[in-house]
């Protein structure tokens, strides 16, 4: 974080924003001069009670720090993408970042002979989800292993971020599905056979070709678990009635069940296979019918 603050010294907007937060939170807890001057006040500022009060301030510092060491993906995406994205370097408010990238390529040229190939490799996507960093790319296990050590060395050298390589796991989507934002993403191998016939010699040649296809599936087990908690079905997925809604009008009961079905249909409309979605709809519709039958 100290190294990050060095870049903010030459960045006026970030300094003004940091000064604003420091003034607000220092005024709420103690005098700003005492905060900087005495160790006792600094310790008082970081106690558990004050830590809860100043969560927004620490979240601000944490997000700035995360933005710093994740900004490498901006450079890599620009180098690897065929479509030139809109530049938002002004939003990152950095000064010497691209210079460090060029120096990193020179430093690791001996360790990674195919380093430039890594930077220019297409189809790289990065996202942070539920406290985890996910990097998606197309390639072999060897290439992804080089990606992992490339990023670990970069973060350790330039941002003083101790990140052990053992904490980064490589998963192949055709073996291990990825649970992301309610979808299960998996790569399926679709084998196809091509037959060619030579007329002169009268023999056949069979060639097996495997095409990779990315499928997004509806996670049926977590959804049934959620419906079970809300008393739409039991643990086996059998629909049950909701006694709580028997006091409502028939139109209100059908409207609430219909709203849930529409929301699920809209969210999982991008799924490549709708069989699990149809099962969830069946559970909700039959639960609605049983609720109406119990009322009457």
Key terms:
single chain, flat, alpha+beta, tRNA processing, 4 domains, mRNA processing, three-stranded antiparallel beta sheet, 5 strands, 296 residues, 14 helices
Verbal overview:
The chain has four domains: 1-70, no CATH class; 95-170, no CATH class; 179-217, no CATH class; 220-295. Helix content is 53%, strand content 16%. It is built from 14 helices and five strands. The strands form two sheets. Strands 3-4-5 form a three-stranded antiparallel β-sheet, with no helix packed on it. It has a two-stranded antiparallel ribbon with strand order 1-2. Strand 4 and strand 5 form a beta hairpin. Helix 13 runs antiparallel to helix 14 (275-295). It is flat.
The gyration radius over C-alpha positions equals 28 Å
Strand order of the largest sheet: 3-4-5
How many helices in DSSP terms? 14
Largest sheet entry: 3 strands, antiparallel
Roughly what percent helix?
40-55%
What is the residue-averaged pLDDT? 66
| Shape assignment | flat
Helix/strand-derived class?
Answer: alpha+beta
Measure the end-to-end span.
Answer: 65 Å
Number of discrete domains: 4
- Taking pLDDT < 50 over at least 5 consecutive residues as the criterion, the unreliable ranges are 31-49, 83-120
The overall strand count is 5
Helix and strand element order = HHHHHHHHHHEEHEEEHHH
β-sheet strand percentage? 15-25%
């Amino acid at each position: 974080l100290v190294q990050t603050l060095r870049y903010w010294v030459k960045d006026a907007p970030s300094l003004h924003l940091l000064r604003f937060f420091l003034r607000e939170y220092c005024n709420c807890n103690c005098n700003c001069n005492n905060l900087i001057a005495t160790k006792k006040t600094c310790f008082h500022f970081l106690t558990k009670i004050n830590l809860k009060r100043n969560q927004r301030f620490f979240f601000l510092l944490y997000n700035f720090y995360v933005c710093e060491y994740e900004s490498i993906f901006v450079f890599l995406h620009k180098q690897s993408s065929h479509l030139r994205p809109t530049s938002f370097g002004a939003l990152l408010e950095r000064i010497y970042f691209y210079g460090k990238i060029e120096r990193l390529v020179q430093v690791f040229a001996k360790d990674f002979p195919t380093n430039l190939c890594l930077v220019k490799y297409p189809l790289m996507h990065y996202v942070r989800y539920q406290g985890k960093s996910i990097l998606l790319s197309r390639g072999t296990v060897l290439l992804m292993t080089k990606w992992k050590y490339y990023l670990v060395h970069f973060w350790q050298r330039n941002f003083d971020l101790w990140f052990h390589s053992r904490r980064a796991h490589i998963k192949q989507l055709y073996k291990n599905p990825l649970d992301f934002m309610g979808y299960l993403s998996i790569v399926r191998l679709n084998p196809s056979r091509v037959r060619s016939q030579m007329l002169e010699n009268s023999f056949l040649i069979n060639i097996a070709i495997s095409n990779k296809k990315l499928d997004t599936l509806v996670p049926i087990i977590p959804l049934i678990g959620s419906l079970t908690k809300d008393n739409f079905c039991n643990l086996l997925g059998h629909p049950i009635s909701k006694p709580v809604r028997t006091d409502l009008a028939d139109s209100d009961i059908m409207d609430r069940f219909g709203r849930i079905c529409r929301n699920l249909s809209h969210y999982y409309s991008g799924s490549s296979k709708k069989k699990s979605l149809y099962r969830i709809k069946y559970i909700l519709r039959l639960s609605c019918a049983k609720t109406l039958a119990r009322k009457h």
